[in-house]
Amino acid sequence: MIQNNHELFVILNAASTQLPAWIWMFLSLLGTGWMVFSLAMPCLLSAPRVFYAIAFAAPLAGIASRTIKLYFAAPRPSAVLESGTFNILGEALHANAMPSGHTITAFAAASAVLLSAPARIRKALLILFPIAAGVGLSRIAIGAHWIEDVVVGALIGAIAGAMGAYFARRVPDAWLEPRSWGLRLLSITTGPLCIYALLTERLDFAENQLVQWISALGVFISLILFWRRSLVGIGGGN
Fold first, then answer.
1. H/E/C letters for each residue in 195-219?
2. Is residue 23 part of a domain?
3. 237 in a domain, yes or no?
4. Does residue 163 belong to any structural domain of this protein?
5. Residue 202 lies in domain
6. Which CATH number goes with the domain that contains 183?
7. Residuewise pLDDT in 10s, the chain (238 residues)
8. What one-character DSSP code corresponds to residue 88?
9. 204 Cβ contact partners less than 8 Å away, ≥ 6 residues apart
10. Count of H helices and E strands in the chain?
11. Closest Cα to residue 169, out of 219, 120, 119, 108?
12. Are residues 52 and 232 in contact, defined by beta-carbon separation less than 8 angstroms?
């Protein structure tokens, strides 16, 4: 069974080379926590309950990922397969394969957004799951994870996102206003940290740097707009 999983990994990894490497690098970037927060930052104004859901899901996903990785301490493909038998993009990683943290993050975000958004737009938001699946596939394409790492990561992420949405749906309506202490606290904690990480860290690949800089600018603009509305007291959406 394990051997079959390894063979299937090699097949998918080889097939992924039919697409340009930058596609897999970009999809992998979407599985980083800071990139998720940068994309979610406009929700501070447009969909605050969704932002709460992501904020609640993030620590749950992170704790689950770290705990399970340390428990299994599973070797990654580069620690098992011979060099040259599969494709690796970027730095070769060797330990803590199970589960895929990027896949957890992507599915946690997709699940949190879908289950906390208004029912009228949920059908359109289903597109988030193929994107999350693309993130998981990218981890196979770059040679960082086995297929089972991605599958387990997707399940854990979906559960973490559902829990985040569960808590977000219980946030009082008063906390959805831009003047609420909850949104203000989230904005001054996640926003600056997100900008700092996007500007100073290499999230997976150096080729993603321009995307990180543009995302940091987007976060900055979102924060300016949020605090402008927060200080003048104009109500936000749900």
1. HHHHHHCCCCCHHHHHHHHHHHHHH
2. yes
3. no
4. yes
5. 2-232
6. 1.20.144
7. 455 789 999 999 999 999 999 999 999 999 999 999 999 999 999 999 999 999 999 999 999 999 999 999 999 999 999 989 999 999 999 999 999 999 999 999 999 999 999 999 999 999 999 999 999 999 999 999 999 999 999 999 999 999 999 999 999 999 999 999 999 999 999 999 999 999 999 999 999 999 999 999 999 999 999 999 999 855 444 4
8. -
9. 25, 28, 29, 32, 90
10. 12, 0
11. 119
12. no
Total domains present in the chain: 1
Strand ranges inside the chain, DSSP E: none
| 71 φψ region: left (φ > 0), alpha (ψ -120 to 50), beta (else) | alpha
Q: What 3-state DSSP class applies to 94?
A: coil
| Cβ atoms 194, 41 nearer than 8 A | yes
What's the burial of 207, exposed, middle or buried (CB within 10 Å: 0-12/13-18/19+)?
Answer: middle
